[in-house]
Amino acid sequence: MAKTPMLKFVHTPRQMPLKREAGVRKEDFDEIYAEFADQKAAEQSGRCSQCGVPYCQSHCPLHNNIPDWLKLTAEGRLQEAYEISQLTNTFPEICGRICPQDRLCEGNCVIEQSGHGTVTIGAVEKYITDTAWEEGWVKPITPSEERRESVGIIGAGPGGLAAADYLRRAGLQVTVYDSHDRAGGLMTYGIPGFKLEKPVVMRRNEQLEAGGVRFVLNCRVGEDMSFEDIREQHDAVIIATGVYKSRDLKGPGSGAKGIVRAIDYLTASNRASNFGDDVPEFKSGELNADGKRVVVIGGGDTAMDCVRTAIRQGATSVKCLYRRDRANMPGSQREVANAEEEGVVFEWLTAPVGFKGEPVEGVLAQKMRLGLPDATGRQSPEVIEGSDYEEPADLVIKALGFEAEELPTLWGQPELEVTRWGTVKAEFTTGRTSLPGVYAVGDIVRGASLVVWAIRDGRDCADAVLGDLAPAGAIAAE
Questions:
Q1: Given 3-state DSSP classes, what are the helix, strand and coil percentages for the chain, each rounded to the nearest 5?
Q2: Within its chain, how far is the Cα of 34 from the centroid?
Q3: Alpha helices, DSSP H only, in 141-193?
Q4: Which of 10, 95, 226, 460 has the smallest number of Cβ neighbours within 10 A?
Q5: Which UniProt keywords apply (predicted)?
Q6: Region label for 431, one of left (φ > 0), alpha (ψ between -120 and 50) or beta (otherwise)
Q7: Rounded to whole angstroms, how far apart are CA atoms 463 and 107?
Q8: Rounded to an integer, what distance in angstroms lies between the CA atom of residue 155 and that of residue 443?
């Protein structure tokens, strides 16, 4: 019997792909991790214990067949590994780069719990699909039959694109509408290149277009085209707009020049640094950290993107203010470590109460301590009396999260039911809304969440659309 390539976790230590040195990587927007070599990918995949109940798979929102493609990679059967990987994940090379594996698959790896260090699942996932692209295994969509049914998708982020991929593979006619000039949503304009290089996203857009998905870009629903017009043109409509309304920060001086929204800051940076677009606000310095003392307020992944972007733009100093401690922050611990290596200073248990100067010269802050747990179980921050101080700043970036825009008002659709948070009220797993033939997926339903959950929603919703539009015996287009 051939010797198994698996179960090597006892003797083979966990190893990530080489990470570029902080002093080098902070000078550009390239991804910070190198690619696994074939031998190293096989070696690290061979550490998988092939659990009978794989917690990595059950804690992945897409329930990816992780043990299977790890075993195939360890055996050198990369094309088969890719085919298994893409069965459940529309964009595995993107999830391999930006998923918080430390909180999902890797964070629930059985050998991690036994003290041997988790399998490097995300890095192997990225390697498999990058290899598939290089070898030409990734092909344009070719439906076995064309069908008459048409679906319009509003929003070209991960949820909308996942649904488009799935529906197009089934032969439906798919049109994606988006307000930006490039598809991809936050994957294109929100996430910096050092986490997700833009050619990775653009080639997926090109693959979808080559497979017959039609894109209508620079289209603002409610302005350039009405929601009713879109409904009239299609048999079903999927709302996948995401949430882009930034949570605001109140307090004296909060309207001062130099206090900006994270989404505006990151979009300007991505346009200028990754696409070479002419961005007046970037050139003028309004949305550029070069030579400035930068303070970012927030503790999520968006805040981590902002602090690391500011470092690369040449800020003289970068500080992140977060009102809880490190253990209670929502952002990825891996991203915090990367930011610290690059020179970001974190001021834990610190909250802003106002701003000084016009334009801004400083953030007025207070030190906090953690008190009793709130309704969610997290300890609530409490002010330490007499702890007020000023944090000097020339640029303040608000990274406090996102909320849903008022779609019923913006689109003139009062019948579209929303929750008390403003998100679209949709049926669990199917995405069906209060409007016949209209579905919703991703952040516009969940609130600000992960790319992988948007992909899951898009896939599940596409399944429901197929079931609703094409009961058994549906006739293909001639």
A1: 35, 15, 45
A2: 20
A3: 158-169, 186-189
A4: 10
A5: 4Fe-4S, Iron, Iron-sulfur, Metal-binding, Oxidoreductase
A6: left
A7: 29
A8: 11
Angle at 468 between CA 464 and CA 472, to 5 degrees: 110
Give the tokens for residue 297.
Answer: 């307020």
Give helix 38-45 / helix 121-135 axis angle, nearest 10°.
Answer: 140
DSSP-based three-state secondary structure for 42: helix
Euclidean distance between the first and final Cα of the chain, in Å?
A: 53
Specify the pLDDT at position 471: 57
pTM for the predicted model, two decimal places: 0.93
Q: What is the CATH number of domain 249-401?
A: 3.50.50.60
Q: To 10 degrees, what angle do helices 158-169 and 198-210 make?
A: 30
Q: How far apart are CA 266 and CA 89, in angstroms?
A: 26
Whether the ω angle into residue 359 lies within 30 degrees of 0, i.e. cis, is yes
Largest CA distance in the chain: 76
Report how far residue 459's alpha carbon sits from residue 166's, in angstroms, rounded to the nearest whole number. 7
pLDDT tens for 295-310 read 999 999 999 999 999 9
Identify the CATH number of the domain defined by range 22-135: 1.10.1060.10
- Sequence-distant (≥ 6) Cβ neighbours of residue 85 within 8 angstroms: 64, 65, 69, 92, 125, 128, 129
What secondary structure does DSSP assign to 83-134, as a single string? HHHHHH-S-HHHHHHHS-TTTTTGGG-HHHHTTS----HHHHHHHHHHHHHH
Extents of the domains making up the chain: 22-135, 150-243+404-469, 249-401
Domain 150-243+404-469 has CATH 3.40.50.10540: no
Q: Kindly indicate the confidence band of residue 377, based on its pLDDT and cuts at 50, 70 and 90.
A: confident
Alpha-carbon gap, residue 152 to 175, rounded angstroms: 5
Residue given tokens 């390539």 in the structure block? 5
pLDDT at 476 over 70: no
- Say yes or no: do domains 150-243+404-469 and 249-401 share a fold: yes
